């Protein structure tokens, strides 16, 4: 691994960080004993938040005039709001500095920003988390570099932004507000400082990780993965999302499952309407308790913990309507005890259901784990676990390397993954009838 020692050159009006390459060291990936510098605020200070059309035009002009890739990040209000919209967009480009955009007052009027950065080369950390809310704003990259995914492929054990910045660049970022309610207005100054720091070193981190991937012979792998993230379709809605209610594993009777479903659906409607995170409308724990106890009337309902609170008493009629709806369902309309599944069963059941498939999966997993260790990357990045399970459960008619390659490509594996894994998977498939 080639290490970087980073010196800070805070020159107001210019990019703040110079990276000086040192002689390669023989220490393991992700480890360094060099001095770490605390970075508590952006070198150029925190810019004012762009909230109106005039300021947006100025910012967009600066970004368009900048050079190189654009660092992009967003802040959402997960855990506070039902929607996953962006409440702040952070941008940084060489020659333009950092730009903070509040998209809420500008919703529907972001054309200058779309023209300036849309279709450009973006740098994001954990891009799949940010791309959907950016697409809501009509902001889409032409190409992207995902620093988290790059860190995984390079073999780093810790790939959070702060960890990678420290490992690669020698800085420790000021952190602490990622889980805050970013829908709050006005945004506190220390939150904005944190948000600006998230893009402060992202461009330098890209260059460092790109060099690392190239030295390991993995850059082409990474580029294929980045493009797969960029072009991934939106995830399909879950057929029965209510089955993800925490604690539902304790519910086996169909009538109780119907109660969970009815309460979940009532909560979801309220949460969507009010744009409040569902768990803040009614915790999963309360849904499970009501399903277990089956309160017969409102008095019995509000006697339960949580339902007796002021907010829940105001909504008691909503919850009772859901409970009565579930209680009145005919048996033919009750949910099944087991969720619908279009894929293979959980692997722990394979030995009983199909011992040959279980043997195929065990063999393939062992081979791919060894291969992943050889290439110093997580096995789940070598080949999607779900694709491996599906391929082992229902093998292709042609189990040769060519036939297996075709099956893996059809399942979404990238060319580099197929090249590395097809022979190993084929061998596991061919070992059983």
Write down how many β-strands occur, each being a DSSP E stretch of 2 or more residues. Answer: 10
Largest sheet: 6 strands, mixed
**Could you report the average pLDDT, rounded to the nearest whole number?**
91
Instruction: Identify the quaternary structure here.
Output: single chain
Number of domains: 3
Indicate the CATH architecture of the largest domain: 2-Layer Sandwich
Text of the CATH class of the largest domain: Alpha Beta
Strand content: 5-15%
Percentage of residues assigned to helices = 40-55%
Characterise the protein shown here.
With 433 residues, the chain is α/β, with parallel strands linked by helices. The chain has 3 domains: 228 residues, Ribonuclease H-like superfamily/Ribonuclease H (Nucleotidyltransferase, domain 5, 2-Layer Sandwich), CATH 3.30.420.10; 93 residues, HRDC domain (DNA polymerase, domain 1), CATH 1.10.150; 84 residues, Orthogonal Bundle (DNA polymerase, domain 1), CATH 1.10.150. Helix content is 49%, strand content 11%. The protein contains 21 helices and 10 strands. A 6-stranded mixed beta sheet has the order 4-7-6-5-8-9, with helices on both faces. A hairpin with a 2-residue loop joins β6 and β7. The protein is flat and about 65 Å long. The two termini are 44 Å apart. The N terminus is likely disordered.
